[in-house]
Amino acid sequence: MARLGLTLPVFDGFMVEYNLIRKANAALLAQIAGAGRAAIVGSPIAQALFRPSMLPTSPKRAWELARALIRHPADLRAARAYRFLNHLPEMTGAQAALAYVLRSPHVASAVFATTSMDHLALNIAAAGMTLSDETISRIETNPDAPAA
Fold first, then answer.
1. Beta carbons within 10 angstroms of residue 35's beta carbon
2. pLDDT, tens only, 76-121
3. CA torsion angle for 55, 93, 106, 115 (degrees, to 10)?
């Protein structure tokens, strides 16, 4: 839909899903930015499906797991390849995922949701973080999740 929207002068920006498991959308972000429009990234942290454990240790975690199993099973499987992000020095896995998205010169903004003030603070801090070349390479060599 964004490509169609680019043909119309009434849209200044487009929200595109782009994250660790949706890297193929990088070309669309470049196209949007190249047209002088804003590329706004949705789901930049890929719902943190790569976190070390998806065990339902609380009602909230049970709901998150059920949602992932029902709505995003392929994403859940693809995210396993990114569990290494949880072991990076000086940042959380979610910060690494967000830093990866924000490193693109074509991203105008990223939109995420959280129910935790601690997570909000961590996500804000991710804007100033830089990933190593090795981490970027490891992210980029993992395949995307199959399209839903």
1. 14
2. 889 999 999 999 999 999 999 999 999 999 999 999 999 899 999 9
3. 60
What percentage of the chain's residues is helix, strand, coil (to nearest 5)? 50, 10, 40
Element (H, E) at 21: none
* CATH node for 2-138: 3.20.20.100
Q: 35 near 11, Cβ under 8 Å?
A: no
pTM: 0.89
| Residue among 73, 79, 50, 54 nearest 65 (CA) | 54
Largest Cα separation within the chain, whole Å, is 48
DSSP state of 147: P
